[in-house]
Every structure is written in C-alpha cells, then in structure tokens.
Write a structure and sequence with these properties.
The protein is an alpha+beta fold. The protein contains 5 helices and 4 strands, in the order βαββαβααα. Strands 2-3-1-4 form a 4-stranded antiparallel β-sheet, sandwiched between helices. A hairpin with a 2-residue loop joins strand 2 and strand 3. The longest helix is centred in the middle third of the chain and has 18 residues.
C-alpha cells in the first residue's frame, strides 16, 4: 500500500499540579490558543479545547507515527514555561505528572466536542475528581485511586 491513511482521535485530560485553581478565564483563553499552536506545530489538529481552573481537556487527532507521550510532554513543558515566563500566576506554575488519553471514534466526535465545550456547565454539578474517575471507569481502565493524581483535600 503506497500511503498510510488514518483517523486517530484522542481526548486528552491533564491537571494543574496539586489541582490548584490557577487557570483564570483570561489565562485559559490565551493558554488554549498557545496549546493549539503547539499541536499545530507538531502537524496535528485540535478539534476542541477547554478547561477549568485546575485542568484542561483537548480533543485532537494524531498521525500514526506520533508518540502521544512526546506530544503531551511538549504541550505541558512548553505551556508551563510560557505561563511562568509571562508571570501569569504567582509562584511557579506546573502541570501534574501524567495525563488521561481516551480514544474517540468519528461517530462520537460531536458528543465529545460538546462535552469539552460545556465544561463550565458540567462542573457546576460534578467535581474534576468525579469526572476523571468516571472517564477511567467508562473506558474500563484499571487504576489505583491513590496513583491517579496528587489530590488536594476537598
């Protein structure tokens, strides 16, 4: 076969270290643009991006030769450096280690995009912890809750 054809969609979720509420509305808008630039610079595509003060959701497509862990390392390292160099937060900004990555089919894209776009409404009744653990369960990902994130006591 002379060419490779693929459609790989991934819903990625990652959190601020310690789940601190450091991403205000102004920063979120600029951060989403910045992350889109990183993804586009890696020849991938963002379909939806949004978040809350303590975490971000991104729906993206990747090429088959893309290592998701490398892309996420680039996104998190570059955006942390950008936030810190622009002094968008007091002290040092860091992302939590790790991330959640959930595959999506073409038929589910509209649903996932709406879910990401409506984060503010969703989180009026659901905490990030509840949301994340529900994602893990719905994708049947085995986990030990003590290793999921460094949770701040609520």
């Amino acid at each position: 076969m002379p060419n490779t054809f693929s459609q790989i969609y991934i819903h990625v979720v990652f959190a601020v270290r310690g789940r601190e509420n450091l991403i205000n509305t102004k920063l979120k808008d600029e951060l989403c643009k910045y992350i889109c630039g990183i993804v586009n610079g890696n020849h991938e595509k963002v379909y939806a991006i949004n978040g809350m003060p303590d975490h971000i959701h991104v729906l993206l497509s990747v090429q088959p030769n893309t290592l998701l862990s490398d892309l996420m390392r680039d996104i998190k390292a570059s955006s942390s450096k950008w936030i810190n160099s622009n002094k968008y937060v007091k002290g040092k900004f860091q992302w939590q280690e790790g991330f959640g990555a959930f595959s999506c089919s073409q038929s589910q894209l509209d649903k996932v995009i709406a879910y990401i776009d409506n984060q503010e409404i969703h989180h009026k009744k659901t905490s990030f912890k509840e949301e994340y653990l529900k994602l893990l369960k719905s994708y049947k990902i085995e986990y030990d809750e003590k290793y999921v994130f460094e949770w701040i006591e609520e």
